[in-house]
Amino acid sequence: MLLCERVHITDLLHEKYVAACERQNPELVDRTIEAVSGEIGDMLSYRYPQPWPYVPELIRYAAAVISAYRIVEAITTLVSSEASSDNEWIPLQKQWKYVTELLEDIAKGKLKLPLAEANPDREEASAAVVSRKPFFDLREL
């Protein structure tokens, strides 16, 4: 299941830039989308088994950002440094960091997706602890 499409990548990167990337590395966009979709699906599959009935918009956005980041990373070294203030990839870097943290939170169960969970965390105890009455009750003294 592909979690995003080429049009989602061109929403983040200019179409001419994507075309320039593919001139250097043919079919880079399609391969990257497929790889990122597989990785995200694997990351979330314990909690949200696949196939999903639909792709939640949050996951679609995360897949698009990570794919765009990797496409840029494949042909330039500018994404690996925030040192220069004129680095045009800083907004994409910030989005990438945001969505990777978001995916980690979803995988850990801190955030929920609008999908059925297979292995949800227990929020209520399923066992009661019973103990004997204290021998001396000094609270009322």
In a few lines, what is going on in this structure?
The chain is mostly helical and 141 residues long.
Structure commentary:
- It is elongated, with a radius of gyration of 23 Å.
- Helix 4 crosses helix 5.
- It is mainly α and 141 residues long.
- It has helices spanning 6-12, 15-24, 28-44, 57-75, 90-108.
- The mean pLDDT is 83.
- The protein contains five helices and no strands.
- The protein has one domain.
Task: Describe this protein with a few key phrases.
141 residues, mainly alpha
Outline, from the CA principal axes?
elongated
Number of domains: 1
Mean pLDDT: 83
Please give the share of residues in helix: 40-55%
Q: What is the subunit arrangement here?
A: single chain
Q: What is the H-and-E element order?
A: HHHHH
The tally of strands reads: 0
Major beta sheet, specifics? none
Residues in β-strands, percent: under 5%
Q: How many helices?
A: 5
The chain-level structural class is mainly alpha
* Radius of gyration of CA atoms, rounded to a whole number: 23 Å
What is the first-to-last residue Cα distance? Answer: 67 Å
Low-confidence stretches: none
List strands and helices in order, with pairings.
Elements: H1 6-12, H2 15-24, H3 28-44, H4 57-75, H5 90-108
